[in-house]
Amino acid sequence: MVSKNLSIKTAKNPALNPEIIKVSADIDQVACDGGHPTLGHPLTYYTFAGVDRIECLYCDRVFIRKSK
Ligand SMILES: [Zn+2]
């Protein structure tokens, strides 16, 4: 007897699925508002101060600055 268990939950919330945004090396500042009309957040600016990777505090988006 074969019992198929297909009760896999695929309830992925896009807001909880971190997005990776790559920006060019000459960008010093990025802005993030969550990118979603209802699940977004207030527009927040982040500066690449000595780092090439910024994680948004609100939506976990990751901004990566390309190295030259
Ligand atoms: Zn964000």
Summarize it.
With 68 residues, the protein is an all-beta fold. It contains no helices and five strands. The chain has one domain: HSP40/DNAj peptide-binding domain (Sandwich).
List strands and helices in order, with pairings:
Blueprint: E1 20-23, E2 29-32, E3 44-47, E4 53-55, E5 62-65
Parallel strand pairs: 1-5
Antiparallel strand pairs: 2-3, 4-5
Bound molecules: zinc ion (ZN).
Supply database-style keywords.
68 residues; HSP40/DNAj peptide-binding domain; three-stranded mixed beta sheet; 0% helix; binds zinc ion
**In what range is the share of β-strand residues?**
25-35%
Order of helices and strands: EEEEE
Q: Which residues sit in consecutive blocks of at least 5 with pLDDT less than 50?
A: none
How large, in whole angstroms, is the Cα Rg?
Answer: 17 Å
Overall number of structural domains? 1
Bound molecules: zinc ion
Mean pLDDT, to the nearest integer, reads 83
Number of helices: 0
Order of strands, widest sheet: 1-5-4
The helix content is under 10%
Corresponding CATH architecture: Sandwich
Q: What characterizes the major β-sheet?
A: 3 strands, mixed
The strand count comes to 5
Distance between the termini: 60 Å
CATH class: Mainly Beta
Task: Output the CATH topology.
Answer: HSP40/DNAj peptide-binding domain
Q: What is the global morphology? A: flat
